[in-house]
Write a structure and sequence with these properties.
It is a single chain. The strands form two sheets. This protein has a seven-stranded mixed β-barrel. The protein has a domain of about 140 residues. It is built from ten helices and eleven strands. By secondary structure, it is α+β, with helices and mostly antiparallel strands. The longest helix is centred in the C-terminal third of the chain and has 25 residues.
């Protein structure tokens, strides 16, 4: 059975690679390793991408997703490497996308966020890849850019430029940190070299304790409000409740630029909840859980800004049922055969899933969700189509 699967995946990879003529396609990744791949230490491997060989390092990654049978991986190179036409970088992510049977929820969200404000809103660019580790086919993965100083354009010389991963400064109450030695998950600069705890705690103090007048006078100099509004709209549109208090990066490009947000991890969205149960707006995310969104929403000027922003995105056809369905259909066509190969390795009726929906059923859930949520937000923001 194993040999049959390997032959199927190898043959499918070659077929996919021969198609498209420059169009989007599924890439072939083969990791060859003499050692077992672990979760903490980097394992040296040989990586073949579409037949081109290079040395790399890998380890498995994931928090809650690590309980699933299919695991995501981190990739690292000794020097910046272009992968699948994406800009060169030293570190990459191969996302297993196990709970999202469409493999599209991440990519759609990230693409949409960049489309909202090109050149300002940054999110991972993605490609699709069939992965094999030694002789074992591992199915379909989503290759994602890391949200690091290179991708985010962060200055390494400015005194206040900084990067945190989901620092948990927007919500009340204590949440156990993933790393007790780095509770705000400072990614840049390295905390051991330049501890920015005071910087992030000062920001949290402003969000929670500033007077209403100081908050309104200062918020636009502290945060890029247009960027925050787009993040807010992405949360509302995707109904990604996890994304309110985690699944984002907070960063400052340089001394002159306010803090911005980059989204991360949107597989629990568009009709699916964090437990991956079906949710067609029976439960709507509560943005008041994030103090920045609660305080902004209390401000008439912000409600006007975000309403105008939604209406502008609708008029520009960046957000519409037809546009989003076309984006989904295009990517679904690209990966359909690769999804079939993935299902042979990772069946859709695994006990971890709340149901045995297949690829097409999940695509339909996304489309039904668009048709439900866009009119809801049109009503919320007073959008009137001409």
């Amino acid at each position: 059975m194993r040999n049959f699967l390997i032959l199927c995946l190898t043959g499918l990879s070659l077929l996919l690679l021969s198609c498209g003529g420059g169009k989007e396609r599924v890439h072939s990744f083969v990791i060859s390793s003499e050692s077992d791949i672990g979760w903490d230490d980097w394992t040296p491997v040989t990586l073949s991408v579409d037949g081109s060989m290079t040395d790399a390092y890998v380890h498995y990654r994931g928090g809650g997703s690590s309980r699933h049978p299919k695991w995501s991986l981190s990739l690292k190179f000794d020097h910046p490497v272009e992968l699948c036409g994406l800009p060169a970088d030293k570190k990459w992510v191969l996302n297993a996308s196990y709970v999202d049977k469409t493999f599209l929820r991440h990519k759609l969200s990230f693409d949409l966020f960049r489309m909202m404000n090109p050149g300002v809103n940054i999110s991972p660019q993605c490609k699709f890849a069939l992965l094999q580790i030694n002789d074992d086919p591992r199915g379909l993965y989503v290759l994602m850019q890391k949200m690091d100083p290179v991708t985010l354009g962060i200055s390494r010389s400015d005194t206040s430029s900084v990067l945190f991963k989901e620092p948990r400064i927007f919500q009340t109450g204590y949440i156990p940190p993933q790393d007790t030695n780095n509770i705000y998950q400072q990614k840049f600069p390295k905390k051991k070299k330049d501890d920015r705890t005071c910087q992030i705690e000062s920001l949290r103090d402003f969000l929670f304790n500033s007077s209403d007048s100081l908050f309104r006078d200062s918020i636009a100099s502290v945060f890029d409000i247009n960027n925050v509004a787009d993040w807010h709209l992405l949360l509302l549109f995707s109904n990604n409740a996890d994304g309110i208090i985690k699944n984002y990066y907070l960063y400052k490009v340089d001394d002159a630029t306010p803090f911005r947000i980059a989204p991360w991890d949107y597989d629990h969205s568009y009709g699916r909840d964090s437990d991956y149960e079906y949710n067609m707006l029976d439960e709507i995310l509560d943005c008041d859980r994030a103090v920045i969104l609660r305080r902004l929403w209390e401000w008439d000027s912000y409600r006007t800004l975000i309403s105008n922003r939604w209406c502008e995105l609708r008029r520009q056809n960046i957000i519409s049922v037809q546009r989003l369905e076309a984006m989904v259909d295009a990517d679904a066509k690209t990966i359909r055969k690769a999804v079939e190969a993935n299902v042979r390795v990772w069946p859709v009726d695994d006990p971890v899933f709340s149901d045995s929906n297949d690829f097409d059923s999940e695509i339909n859930i996304m489309k039904q969700f668009f048709k439900l949520n866009i009119p809801r937000l049109d009503s919320l923001f007073n959008y009137q189509s001409k």
